[in-house]
């Protein structure tokens, strides 16, 4: 209840009640309301500046979750693209070389993404740039997968028409990967273990215990069996279609000269004969008389992950074993 105010009337010498006119009352009311509104506005402004509303807090949580999911999506796209690049490389440089087919050009693999801005409709969104980049990556990946799928369809037709050729091409490891001791010296320039100089290593060395089985990597005929200087006990197989393989430093022979063998047949055992610094198999592949990298032919018994791991190991410029 408002307090009653009095004033001293000098004429009547009495205290009398203060009576406010309607105008003053209205002005006071307006002043009170205006002051209250100003303070309310200040309080609300401070609250919105320094404090998040429940809705804003929820939106921030959703934005953080979307950012995390976007990063995960980008990483998955990157990994998928890396796997696809490995498949494309093997397609062009291994499968198509084997079947004597022309590799798919980069223009074909990457076609259809230039010229008109096909993502213009996404520009006006708040996160338009982010959406455009992700959509473009997905489109490119889808296009590449489609081209690769068509390439495999073509290769399937070549396989069906060249069944005998497929069984003759050296396409497996000559030694069971479970028997290997881990060290591999690959094709290319390596440090020679005896001369200690950088020298061309024309095959792959698989380190394994003496007596480890060695298998023919493709159908063919044994054209040489015996001792060869530097290579020790070795076997050579003519697979036809221009392919010949050599298996060196063997301890014992199983196959004989003139014998016809199938892929996976036992032909001998790992040894340490000839110019060798430890038990291992030295394996070479020839195509039309020229030595080629055997790594290009291990596609029948290795998964993409196993192939990449072996490729990394074989590509290290370490010391060879012969």
UniProtKB/TrEMBL annotation:
<keyword id="KW-0472">Membrane</keyword>
<keyword id="KW-0812">Transmembrane</keyword>
<keyword id="KW-1133">Transmembrane helix</keyword>
<dbReference type="InterPro" id="IPR050570">
    <property type="entry name" value="Cell_wall_metabolism_enzyme"/>
</dbReference>
<feature type="domain" description="M23ase beta-sheet core">
    <location>
        <begin position="199"/>
        <end position="294"/>
    </location>
</feature>
<feature type="transmembrane region" description="Helical">
    <location>
        <begin position="29"/>
        <end position="51"/>
    </location>
</feature>
<protein>
    <submittedName>
        <fullName>Peptidase M23</fullName>
    </submittedName>
</protein>
<dbReference type="Pfam" id="PF01551">
    <property type="entry name" value="Peptidase_M23"/>
</dbReference>
<dbReference type="InterPro" id="IPR016047">
    <property type="entry name" value="M23ase_b-sheet_dom"/>
</dbReference>
<dbReference type="GO" id="GO:0004222">
    <property type="term" value="F:metalloendopeptidase activity"/>
</dbReference>
<feature type="coiled-coil region">
    <location>
        <begin position="56"/>
        <end position="90"/>
    </location>
</feature>
<dbReference type="InterPro" id="IPR011055">
    <property type="entry name" value="Dup_hybrid_motif"/>
</dbReference>
<keyword id="KW-0175">Coiled coil</keyword>
């Amino acid at each position: 209840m408002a307090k009653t105010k009095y004033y001293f009337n000098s004429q009547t010498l009495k205290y009398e009640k203060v009576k406010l006119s309607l105008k003053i009352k209205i002005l006071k009311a307006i002043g009170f309301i205006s002051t209250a509104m100003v303070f309310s506005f200040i309080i609300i402004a401070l609250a919105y500046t320094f404090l998040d509303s429940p809705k804003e807090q929820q939106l921030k949580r959703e934005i953080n979750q979307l950012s995390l999911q976007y990063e995960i999506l980008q990483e998955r796209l990157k990994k998928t693209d890396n796997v696809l690049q490995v498949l494309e490389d093997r397609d062009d440089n291994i499968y198509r070389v084997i079947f004597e087919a022309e590799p798919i050009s980069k223009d074909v693999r990457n076609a259809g993404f230039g010229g008109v801005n096909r993502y213009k409709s996404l520009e006006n969104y708040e996160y338009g740039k982010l959406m455009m980049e992700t959509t473009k990556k997905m489109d490119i990946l889808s296009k590449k997968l489609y081209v690769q799928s068509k390439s495999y369809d073509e290769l399937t037709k070549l396989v069906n028409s060249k069944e005998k050729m497929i069984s003759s091409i050296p396409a497996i490891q000559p030694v069971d990967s479970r028997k290997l001791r881990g060290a591999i010296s690959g094709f290319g320039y390596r440090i020679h273990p005896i001369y200690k100089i950088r020298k061309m290593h024309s095959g792959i060395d698989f380190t394994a215990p003496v007596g480890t089985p060695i298998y023919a990597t493709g159908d063919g005929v044994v054209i040489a069996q015996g001792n060869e200087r530097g290579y020790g006990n070795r076997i050579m197989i003519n697979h036809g279609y221009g392919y010949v393989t050599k298996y060196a430093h063997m301890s014992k022979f199983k196959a004989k000269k003139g014998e016809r063998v199938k892929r996976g047949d036992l032909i001998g055992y790992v040894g340490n004969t000839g110019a060798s610094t430890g038990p291992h198999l030295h394996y070479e592949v020839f195509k039309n008389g020229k030595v080629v990298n055997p790594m290009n032919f291990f596609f029948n018994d290795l998964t993409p992950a196993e192939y990449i791991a072996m490729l990394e190991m074989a590509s290290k410029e370490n010391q060879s074993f012969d």
